[in-house]
Amino acid sequence: HADIAMYRAKESGRNSYQFFTHQMQDRLNERLKLESSLKQALENDEFVLHYQPQVDLSTGKIIGLEALIRWQSPTLGLVPPGDFIPAAEEGRLISAIGEWVIFAVCKRLQSWRRQGLKIVPVAINISALQFMEQKTEELVKQALNEYMVEPKYLELELTESLSMLDPVTSISLMQRLKDIGVSLSIDDFGTGYSNLSYLKRFPVNKLKIDKSFVSGLTNNPDDYSIVKAIIRMSQSLGLKTIAEGAETAGQIALLAAENCDAIQGFYFSRPLPEAEICAMLKERPRLDISEFGRNKDRGA
Ligand code: C2E
Ligand code: MG
Ligand code: MG
Ligand code: MG
C-alpha cells in the first residue's frame, strides 16, 4: 500500500530506495501505455483541433485563431493537451503529432476558403523538440503547398524557454521559417528565461502574455506591473502584444487602457470545435467591444 510504503520510506533509507524504484517503474509503465495509445490515436485519426479566436482590441474583429489539439479517445473521452502532450514530448511522438497539426490546419484553411469563408491567420503551437529537429521548415512548406494556403495565414507559436535553450540556432531556424512568409510569436511570454538582448534579435512578430499574469491583473498589483512592462517592451521592440487567458471585462478594460493589441480568452470565447468556429467567423466576425472604450484611432 502506497501510504505504508511512504511511511517506511521515511523510516529507512533502504526502503525508500525500493519504494521509489517501484513507483518509478509504475510511472514508466503508465507512460509507455500512454505512448502506445497515442501512437494508436494517431493511426486511428483520433486527434481533433479546436480553435480559439483572437480579438483585436481596437476594432473587435476576430484577427486570428489558435489551433489547440484535443484527443478524442473512444475510451477516455475528450482529453486536453496538458494530459498527453508532455508524454508525447518525452516519447518523441510529438514530432508526428506536430506534423499532423500542421497539415490539419492547412487542410482546414483550404476547406474554409473553398466554402467562401473570409479566413484569418491560424496559430499553431510548435513544441521545442519538434522545432529543434529542424524539419518544421520543410513540413510547413509542404503543407502550404499541398493545400494552396498563403503563408501569411499561418503563425507558429514558440516558447520563450525553447528559444533560450540555444538562441543562436533558434534565431537561424526562426529566420528560415520567417523567410517562408509565416509569422512567428513567442507563447507564454514572461514564464521562461527572458534574455532580453536575444529577444531583440528574434525575428518574431508577436508576444503572447502568459495567462498567469492576466488572471491576476485586477487584484494583484505585481501582475499588473508585469503586464504593463511587457506591453511597453513589446511596443518598443515593434512587436504586437496579445494577452492570453482574459476571462473578465475588468481584465480586458485594463488591457485596453494599456494599449494591448489583442485578446485571446474565455471572456470572448473558449476554444471551439471546427463547426462552431466556422459559424462564428461567418456570423460574428466582429465582436462588440464598445464597453472597453477604445476606438479604431487610438493606439495607432
Ligand atoms: P497555450 O499554447 O498557451 O494555449 C492556451 C491555453 O490557454 C489553451 O489551453 C486555452 O484553452 C487556454 N485558455 C485560453 N483562454 C483562457 C482563459 O480565459 N482562461 C483559462 N483558464 N484558460 C484559457 P489548452 O487548449 O488546454 O492547451 C494547453 C497547452 O497545450 C497549450 O498552451 C499548448 O502549450 C499545448 N498545446 C495545445 N495544442 C497543442 C499542439 O497542437 N501542439 C503542441 N505542441 N502543444 C499544444
Ligand atoms: Mg499557444
Ligand atoms: Mg500560451
Ligand atoms: Mg502554455
From TrEMBL:
Q: Which residues form the EAL domain?
A: 31-285
The name on file for this protein is cyclic-guanylate-specific phosphodiesterase
Which organism does this record belong to?
Hahella chejuensis (strain KCTC 2396)
Residue window of the full protein shown: 420 to 719 of 841
